[in-house]
Design a protein that fits this description.
34% helix, Elongation Factor Tu (Ef-tu), domain 3, 622 residues, Arc Repressor Mutant, subunit A, FAD/NAD(P)-binding domain, 4 domains, binds flavin-adenine dinucleotide
């Protein structure tokens, strides 16, 4: 091996993408001597796909990252172009914030935060080899340098063994023309990591002035726009619109005529693609009865003319792309600045990790982000934060943190990955949580900020601010329960206008709020003792009053599940020796080695009957 540097780091992070950034910042902020490596300094925090942060369930992750003291939410607020709360027409469990961002500015802000961070050294260097000697990890760079570290976080994204596909053409590359990581995969296989090939795809970028926006439906942001971060005081106004268009029969015809030339359909790509982010080819083939497919035309930034075609990723040849994009209303004269492409890359089977994101067989080695089999900036950042926290605590000899699925989407994401694994890139969705009514995006701070403070990632000032708003909400709920409104004409006029039955007796404010048709906004005129509080406090109070019964039920389910999570299972258990366990359960449990009965019950192929056998076996052992 090459030239050793004199320093031993506590944490070395391979990757400065969405996972690597959160991992590096968290580790350094917890006092760990941290090194962050990236192939290209000018691509730190790059968004190689959609120029937006958040969306259904992804918005929940961003709020949780912020509540813990992570960076993604704050940076998004600093460079947002437009923000919308999705699913407002549905229940609060699926309300999700989504912000269009200036992707160039996002990357610059994140790079600057890494550069300014105490205890953190950011370096452009490709890690080509890695091994552990005497409990210390040795990382070799392409230039022959050796860096030593107590722990390592692998967050290589879509670069590891990266290969691009555009129709019949394919070549080794990372996203956005950056060269791939060609060597590290070999070293990771030598360490015994179970690598496999996944793929994802992105649409073309088109020059704004070549699009006829006048014929398209604009999609403005919410007024006022809502911030992601609890630290953001004033977000300012939306800066630009998105636009909506649709494919048509001609688009369909062109794509079907050339489907054999799509890398996906010609069998050129072996990697498995994301089920929930299908390419336009996939949509047209899988949903053949659908006459048209919607696309969103989104600005990539305020200092660029590039527009992103959301929902139109493809791996058809470039000339076919030009033809089918130009068949779409508004894009008749589209000038493509970057063609759509698919990328295949190496990632690991996440069941090889504990819920701390440390590899079961390699102490001090962690995985995060796309490398773990997930897809998305938000999923990556959430895992990076957890891996960074645990790598730092490992290096400092402290207990590692496991995030529970009953307390966060971060916990749900990681538990799903390490317990169930994933056969295609894992995208977070609210339906993945059995507790989504209590894991809302509006109460992320209540669920996670105390832990963030305990860990040392949330400042005392921020913690005081959090406690104050929690107290305000609790007091507001008490006030609503105590406040009695008289059955005045004015009150009943409001009630009837919201199509619910008038009242004849004095009524408690909370009882009115329990009616689905009535909200704080409706009752402003008659709620005269209402204190002046941030809008967010009333929104939260209203949700907790309205959904009190459901929330209580979910909390009882959490309490029941917690009992099973507390029944620890020894890692040395040989499940083939447990009488009464079905063969499939024995095999799956021996592969996953669950930490407790709760996790065992979620291993795919383990039935409730198997769980009963395990419970009896466990109590007999005692
Ligand atoms: C073409 C494409 C399409 C996508 N489509 C979607 C989509 O539709 N939906 C969605 O949710 N997400 C999509 N994504 C995924 C999204 O970009 C990623 O999920 C996200 O960027 C992952 O973040 P990450 O931190 O894991 O990795 P990345 O952001 O890829 O960052 C990886 C980092 O690792 C560094 N690195 C890699 N190997 C080495 C090495 N050996 N030495 C040093 N540094 C190294 C790189 O320089 C980079 O800094 C797409 C990505 C691409 C490229």
């Amino acid at each position: 091996m090459g030239t050793k540097t004199s320093k031993i780091y506590d944490v070395a992070v391979i990757g400065a993408g969405h996972a690597g950034i959160e991992a590096g910042l968290a580790a350094a902020r917890l006092g760990a001597k941290t090194a962050v490596f990236t192939i290209n300094m000018d691509a730190v925090g790059n968004c190689p796909c959609n120029p937006s942060i958040g969306g259904t369930a992804k918005g929940h992750l961003v709020r949780e990252i912020d509540a813990l003291g992570g960076e993604m939410g704050k940076t998004t607020d600093q460079c947002f172009i437009q923000s919308r709360m999705l699913n407002r027409g549905k229940g609060p469990a699926v309300h999700s914030l989504r912000a269009q961002i200036d992707r160039r500015e996002y990357a610059d802000i994140m790079k600057r935060k890494l550069e300014k961070q105490e205890n953190l050294e950011l370096r452009q260097a490709e890690i080509t080899d890695i091994e552990q000697k005497d409990g210390v990890w040795l990382l070799q760079t392409r230039n022959g340098m050796i860096y030593e570290s107590k722990t390592v976080v692998i967050a290589t994204g879509t670069f590891l063994g990266g290969r691009i596909f555009i129709g019949e053409v394919s070549y080794e590359s990372g996203p956005d023309g950056i060269f791939p990581a060609r060597f590290l995969g070999v070293a990771l296989k030598k360490l015994g990591l179970p690598l496999r090939r996944f793929k994802t795809g992105t649409p073309a970028r088109v020059l704004r002035r070549s699009i006829n926006l006048d014929v398209l439906e604009p999609q403005p942001g919410d007024t006022p726009p809502e911030p992601f971060s609890y630290e953001t005081e004033d977000l300012g106004d939306n800066k630009a619109d998105c636009y909506i268009s649709y494919t048509n029969d001609i688009t369909k015809e062109i794509i079907l005529k050339n489907i054999h030339r799509s890398a996906m359909y010609s069998g050129k790509i072996e990697g498995v693609g994301p089920r929930y982010c299908p390419s336009i080819e996939d949509k047209i083939v899988r949903f053949a009865d659908k006459p048209r497919h919607q696309l969103f035309i989104e600005p990539c930034g305020m200092n660029t003319e590039e527009m992103y075609l959301q929902g139109m990723s493809s791996s058809l040849p470039e000339e076919v792309q030009i033809e089918f994009y130009r068949s779409i209303k508004g894009l008749e004269n589209a000038h493509i600045t970057r063609p759509a492409y698919a990328i295949e890359y190496d990632c690991v089977d996440p069941t090889a990790m504990f819920a701390t994101l440390e590899f079961k067989t390699l102490q001090g080695l962690y995985g995060a982000g796309q490398f773990n089999g997930s897809s998305g900036y938000e999923e990556a950042a959430a895992q990076g934060l957890v891996a960074g926290i645990n790598a730092a605590r490992q290096a400092q000899g402290k207990e590692q943190i496991v995030f529970e699925r009953a307390n966060s989407y971060i916990g749900t994401l990681i538990d799903d990955l390490v317990t169930k694994g994933c056969s295609d890139p894992y995208r977070m969705m609210t339906s993945r949580s059995e507790y989504r009514l209590i894991l809302r995006q509006d109460n992320a701070d209540e669920r996670l900020t105390p832990l963030g403070f305990e860990l040392g990632l949330i400042t005392p000032e921020r913690y005081e601010k959090f406690k104050k708003s929690a107290e305000q909400k609790a007091n507001e709920i008490k006030r609503a329960e105590k406040t009695v409104l008289q059955p005045t004409e004015e009150l009943n006029k409001i009630i009837v206008s919201r199509e619910t039955s008038p009242v004849e007796q004095p009524v408690r404010l909370a009882d009115l709020l329990r009616r689905p048709q009535l909200s704080y906004d409706d009752l402003t005129a008659v709620d005269i003792t209402r204190p002046s509080l941030p809008k967010r406090i009333f929104e939260q109070a209203e949700i907790e009053i309205k959904y009190e019964g459901y929330i209580k039920k979910q909390q009882e389910a959490v309490a029941r599940a917690k009992k099973l999570e507390q029944k620890q299972l020894p890692q040395t258990t040989d499940y083939s020796q447990i009488k009464g366990l079905r063969l499939e359960a024995q095999e799956k449990l021996n592969k996953i080695k669950p930490q407790n009965i709760g996790q065992a019950s979620r291993v795919s192929g383990v039935t409730p009957a198997d769980v009963s056998v395990l419970l009896i076996w466990l109590s007999s052992r005692k």
